[in-house]
Write the structure tokens for this entry.
Amino acid sequence: MARTELVPARREFNPFRDIVDMERSFNQMFESFCTPPSARGGNGERVWLPELDLQETDEELIVQAAVPGVDKKDISIDVTENTLSIRGERKEVREEKGKTWVQREQDYGTFYRSIHLPASVDAERVKAMDKNGVLEIHLPKTEKTKARHVVVE
């Protein structure tokens, strides 16, 4: 059988991508220091970290997490006034008889992300939905943190 190498596909060259990738690695490393071992696979299981985007409007915060291949029943979301925690698991796709991996880049295993929110939110009104592998979480702001326009007198 011929020897094969699994080489990740590289995206179009972007001189800032390495900086962004390095920042993401530092953030993930810092997050792993602040995450309990049981939440980050302390028993030897594989762990991966979905990428998160956070947007803010006057009324709410919107978090989007890339979780393709994760069943919604395998996702747990906890919200406090100023923290969002997401746990879940992407099940490993096992090699089937008669098939051999030629290239394999997708992560699998458990994940845990916890972020500090830039505004207080109403945990009772939080809504989450899966949109084609992107977990979208809407976190309504509390009345005391909603933006309001002030006119100078």
Q: What stands out?
A: Strands lie at 52-56, 60-66, 75-79, 83-90, 109-116, 127-131, 134-140. The radius of gyration is 19 Å. Residues 17-33 form the longest helix (17 residues). The mean pLDDT is 82.
